[in-house]
From TrEMBL:
Organism lineage: Eukaryota, Metazoa, Chordata, Craniata, Vertebrata
Organism: Cyprinus carpio carpio
GO MF annotations, alphabetized: monoatomic ion transmembrane transporter activity
KW Metal-binding (keyword) present: no
GO cellular component, as recorded: mitochondrial inner membrane
Record-given protein name: Sidoreflexin
Amino acid sequence: SIFHGRYTIHIHLVNKQMSGDLPLNINIKEPRWDQGTFMGRAQHFFMVTDPRNVLLSSEVLEDARVTVENYRLGIVKPGLTEDELWRAKYIYDSAFHPDTGEKMLLVGRMSAQVPMNMTITGCMLTFYRTTPAVVFWQWVNQSFNAIVNYTNRSGDAAITMNQLGAAYVSATTGAVVTALGLKSLAKHLPPIMGRFVPFAAVAAANCINIPFMRQRELKCGIPVTDAEGKRLGESSKAAQQAIVQVVVSRIGMAVPAMAIPPVIMNALEKKAFMKRFPVLNAPVQVGLVGLCLVFATPLCCALFPQKSSMKVSSLEPELQENIRQSNPNITTVYFNKGL
């Protein structure tokens, strides 16, 4: 009957929508939210820096990688919904490098920032009174930073073990020396100022560590592309802008975690309860730092778009010339700034 025929067609259409043969035009190269606004970037980075991503198994990561790479090739897993596709994309982004596609070291991933920084910063703020403790925790912190800076570098150029070793030694030494210098200065200041030494040391160290660990980018440049992602060349000027933005974001991340807990702890330590249980000092401090970092990490990553841009007129003269000859209508280039 006609009714039966229509009914069958209707069922077929409903099934087609439910099985969700996804359209192939969802742009998963870009984040799900508008990166032109701070709120869009913040939503994106809350997903990327989600500490729960650290707990995902290799199978889940591999599954996400296959889903994303297949989708880019036009192969859709039967029954895949749009939400599942975006979830896979964010799992993929949290664990694989955007330029090389390699799986990143676990502790270097942005999703490991909160648990790792929470522990290290909490210990730095708790054990700041003796020189060996300052040296040890600053060294641990800078070693962690060196791994993060290497893991989240921009570009796909290989870096030799010698370059990496030299960068690591110069970055950690510079940071530890700065911390000790500031610690000796703080002796002549009120006690509350002593608590801020770790923050000043971390801010100064970031200014040293990031450029050192990413010095290859400053020498050789990072890939710049047009709006469609077509590679136009390598630029050191773009690398400079990328590194400055990352340094600002990293110092921003450290501000709430290192400025708020010391003030609270200063007040708490005077309370009878904390005097009776001094063992609570470190856990309370670590907890406060964690609370600050859960918000500070994504919000400071969101200060600048991950896909940063630059006017062609600001690039190196030779690169400007090349771009003008091959693509005369391009005025802006784009690059991954790293994190």
